[in-house]
Amino acid sequence: MVILGLIIIVNYTFFSKCFKIIDFAAPSQNDIENFQIIVSHRPYPVTPINHSMNAARDNPAIVIDNGSGFTKVGFAGGAAPQSTFQTAIGKKIRSSGKDSPLDDLNFVSGEISSAHSSTYTTHPPIKHGVVEDWDSMEQLWQRCFYEKLRCNPEDHYLLLSEPPLNPPENREQTAEIMFETFNVPAMNISVQAALSLCSSWANEKVTHREMTGIVVDSGFGATHIVPVVDGKVFSSCIKQMNIGGRDITAYIQKLMRDRKEPIPHGMGVDVARSVKENFTYTCPNIEKECERYDSNPEKYSKVYESIHKKTGQIFSCNVQHERFLAPEVLMTPKVCR
After folding, report:
1. Is 119 helix (H, G, I), strand (E, B) or coil?
2. Residue 277 belongs to a domain with what CATH number?
3. Is residue 40 assigned to a domain?
4. Which end of the chain is less packed: N or C, by CB atoms within 10 Å?
């Protein structure tokens, strides 16, 4: 089954022939018989392909976009993702040093572990767009299927996104997990930049569906500049910079900490992320912008208010130069070093 999964990812001709993923047609009887011969030697039962393919053809495909910071999941045809959550897995801190055979089952999603940091440790499986912890990644996919979407992956086709410079070994590992663990009937892995061009077709102003362009994809852990020609990505022309939203958040947190803003302990990242999403902007001239803030700080400064997680009391802090300095991390990375 592992070999079959690898061939499906690498060879699109065989992929289209066996599973008819391109036109979503039913497989032929010969394809079904050949597949059943291959899986007949598996040590554990598998859903028959004819049942799985028939169910998947009648159900919308599952779309999963795993980013370094957040994961978006939903069904094909939806106007927006059904769920967006932190790309992390929380594992309970053991009170004793002994390992338990149930430790692998004792995990929660990232947002729950962040809210209970005293009892759970957070493990992000993706760094700079590349999966580094496959055990946590498999647990994250379990949360995607069974908790967020509440569906059986055997009854849906699957579309996964991947970063532009994803190693081939990671695609093979992904295919192995999806076919062997979750028994998906068919899947497709596409580069995020190509999918971004496809998403532009939903705009009413778009009269011609174009698959050629340059995509600037700035994510949580990395930024890519990707040229796409007729839907094909040329890896030799891709430019990657390991700077993204995480670095902007860390820079805002550093500026506010150096200014000694009254931020509660343990909430620095949350406050910095909210400031980044609600108060930041770009300016044409940094020096002139600094002079404006220095001359009249009360006019241009903003006040951020939130509720303390533990005490429930309201606290506030000032937002000043980080409003326009934070986006400069992407334009001039040396400002945060």
Report:
1. coil
2. 3.90.640.10
3. no
4. C
Work out the angle between the directed axes of helices 12-19 and 2-10 (0-180°, nearest 10): 120
Residue 275 lies in a domain: yes
DSSP string, 314-336: EEEEEE-THHHHTTHHHH-GGGG
Gap between the Cα atoms of 314 and 239, Å rounded: 44
Whether residue 126 contacts residue 67, with contact meaning beta carbons closer than 8 Å, is answered with yes
Pick from 295, 294, 291, 290: nearest CA to 328: 290
pLDDT (tens place) for every residue of the chain, 337 residues total: 433 333 333 333 333 333 333 333 344 555 444 433 333 333 333 444 455 566 677 889 999 999 888 899 999 888 889 999 888 887 776 655 555 555 555 566 656 655 555 667 778 888 878 898 898 899 899 989 998 999 999 999 999 998 888 888 999 999 999 999 999 999 999 888 888 888 877 777 777 788 888 998 888 888 889 999 988 888 888 888 888 888 899 999 999 999 888 888 878 888 999 999 999 998 888 888 888 888 888 888 899 988 887 788 898 899 998 999 999 888 887 776 6
Contact 290/321 with Cβ under 8 angstroms?
yes
